[in-house]
């Protein structure tokens, strides 16, 4: 069986120590140590330049160099050969210092035997090989990170920046030498993707998506944050949202124009009738004038729908504390007269059941929320052309107060249930005041609310409006 061959260069000026080391290496079984010995550091350094060595065994006190300087000089000229240093019995601190500076091991003279010497040399060679592989892997990783199109930032456990690739320099608007050593300004949350705004000098503000993972960097725990510039994507999304809103406004404007025309015709007819009846039938004239006033109020509400569509979401100056029970009663009062106007017979008018529980108050605009609830109620009524049961309930659940409107229609098919809150979506072929849900959606968003739909075919559909509660307010008060 072939034996392992290890080529050793010993730099030792004491002939006795050199002879002892040669004898000990000769006693080791299974490994052939080919030992070369020189007595000067300068001679050893010349030998290192020729290569073909596996390990350097170095005495730190030589005629031409003494102490720690001997190791640092040899390390600088070792051409990648691992070094094991030899120290005196009372000079262990020097050996430890050499290990901290990069020596693979140290051996105190007088405490070394054949086995410990052979083991130290073998371990030095293997550790050096593994360290070389690790450094090569790290070099490849750095090249990959450096060339990555996404920005890469590595931070230590204290969120201090350790590495920045060129893409991150471009995203952050600063050079790596300026960033390394500074504290990272945004939080790092492993496993979560977050969006942040980055303000850059003379280059404006961008939006970046940040994804963070835990890694080990240069032997210590660290975080790697991947930054992707999504400014153009966010701008495109905003532009698309504006376009959708403009389309919704155009459709709403067309519907409102039709409403206005009907209102004006009605008001003109009522005015003509009032003039005719003014002297002969004052009571009829009064009723016609009241109809004109009602039409004007309807026109004002139509204009209000346009205002709501483009009202700033952060303008909450019109919000007051509200009790949902009161809003439900007002919305029911508003929709009940429409049943007769729409020609419902007594059998077609739905039965109304309420379960109002006085949930905690919410902040909001009462007119807008009544409008939303009236639309929910109106949709539910329209869904039951042959009559049925209209149920309205209020409640509270985990910081939300809610209203649920349920009908006993055939239900919404599962394939269209997700479209229930799309602007202008409807399952009916002819609906008066068909402007969809766009106004309601904008009102709900402005109030920080949510809408939920649950439908069971053959049983009916429930629409729920959830609104955040107004903290610190008494639930039995408010409008």
Descriptive notes:
- With 479 residues, the chain is an alpha/beta fold.
- The chain has four domains: 4-142, Response regulator (Rossmann fold); 149-229, Beta-Lactamase (2-Layer Sandwich), CATH 3.30.450.20; 232-310, Orthogonal Bundle (Helix Hairpins), CATH 1.10.287; 317-479, Heat Shock Protein 90 (2-Layer Sandwich).
- 43% of the residues lie in helices and 25% in strands.
- It has 13 helices and 19 strands.
- The strands form five sheets. Strands 2-1-3-6-7 form a five-stranded parallel β-sheet, sandwiched between helices. Strands 9-8-12-11-10 form a five-stranded antiparallel β-sheet.
- β6, α4 and β7 (105-108) form a beta-alpha-beta unit.
- The longest helix is centred in the middle third of the chain and has 47 residues, at 231-277.
- The radius of gyration is 42 Å and the shape is rod-shaped.
- The chain starts with a strand and ends in an 11-residue tail after the last strand.
């Amino acid at each position: 069986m072939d034996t392992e061959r290890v080529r050793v260069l010993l730099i030792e000026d004491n002939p006795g120590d050199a002879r002892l080391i040669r004898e000990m290496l000769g006693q080791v079984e299974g490994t052939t140590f080919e030992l070369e010995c020189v007595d000067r550091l300068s001679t050893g350094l010349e030998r290192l330049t020729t290569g073909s060595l596996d390990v350097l065994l170095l005495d730190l006190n030589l005629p031409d160099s003494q102490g720690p300087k001997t190791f640092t000089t040899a390390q600088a000229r070792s051409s990648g050969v691992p070094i094991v240093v030899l120290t005196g019995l009372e000079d262990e601190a020097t050996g430890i210092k050499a290990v901290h500076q990069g020596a693979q091991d140290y051996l105190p003279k007088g405490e070394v035997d054949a086995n410990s010497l052979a083991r130290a040399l073998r371990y030095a060679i293997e550790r050096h090989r593994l360290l070389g592989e690790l450094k090569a892997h790290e070099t490849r990783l750095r090249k990959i990170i450096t060339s990555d199109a996404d920005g890469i930032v590595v931070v230590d456990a204290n969120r201090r920046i350790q590495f920045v690739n060129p893409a991150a320099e471009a995203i952050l608007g600063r050079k790596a030498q300026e960033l390394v050593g500074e504290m990272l300004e945004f939080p790092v949350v492993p496993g979560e993707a977050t969006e942040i705004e980055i303000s850059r000098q003379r280059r404006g503000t961008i939006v970046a998506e940040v994804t963070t993972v835990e890694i080990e960097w240069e032997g210590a725990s660290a975080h790697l944050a991947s930054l992707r510039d999504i400014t153009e994507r966010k701008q495109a999304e905003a532009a698309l949202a504006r376009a959708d809103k403009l389309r919704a406004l155009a459709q709403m404007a067309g519907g409102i124009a039709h409403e206005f025309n009907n209102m004006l015709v009605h008001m003109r007819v009522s005015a003509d009738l009032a003039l005719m009846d003014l002297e002969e039938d004052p009571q009829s004239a009064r009723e016609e004038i009241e109809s004109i006033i009602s039409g004007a109020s309807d026109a004002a509400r139509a204009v209000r729908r346009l205002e709501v569509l483009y009202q700033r979401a952060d303008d909450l100056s019109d919000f007051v504390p509200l009790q949902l029970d009161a809003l439900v009663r007002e919305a029911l009062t508003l929709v009940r007269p429409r049943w007769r106007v729409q020609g419902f017979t007594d059998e077609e008018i739905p039965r109304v059941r309420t379960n109002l529980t006085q949930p905690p108050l919410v902040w909001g605009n009462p007119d807008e929320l009544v409008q939303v609830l009236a639309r929910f109620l109106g949709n539910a009524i329209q869904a039951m052309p042959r009559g049925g049961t209209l149920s309205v309930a209020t409640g509270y659940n985990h910081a939300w107060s809610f209203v649920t409107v349920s009908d006993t229609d055939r239900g919404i098919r599962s394939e269209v249930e997700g479209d229930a809150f799309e602007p202008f979506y409807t399952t009916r072929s002819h609906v008066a005041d068909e402007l969809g849900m766009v106004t309601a959606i904008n009102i709900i968003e402005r109030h920080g609310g949510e809408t939920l739909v649950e439908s069971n075919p053959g049983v009916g559909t429930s629409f729920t409006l959830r609104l955040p509660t107004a903290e610190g307010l008494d639930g039995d008060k408010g409008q």
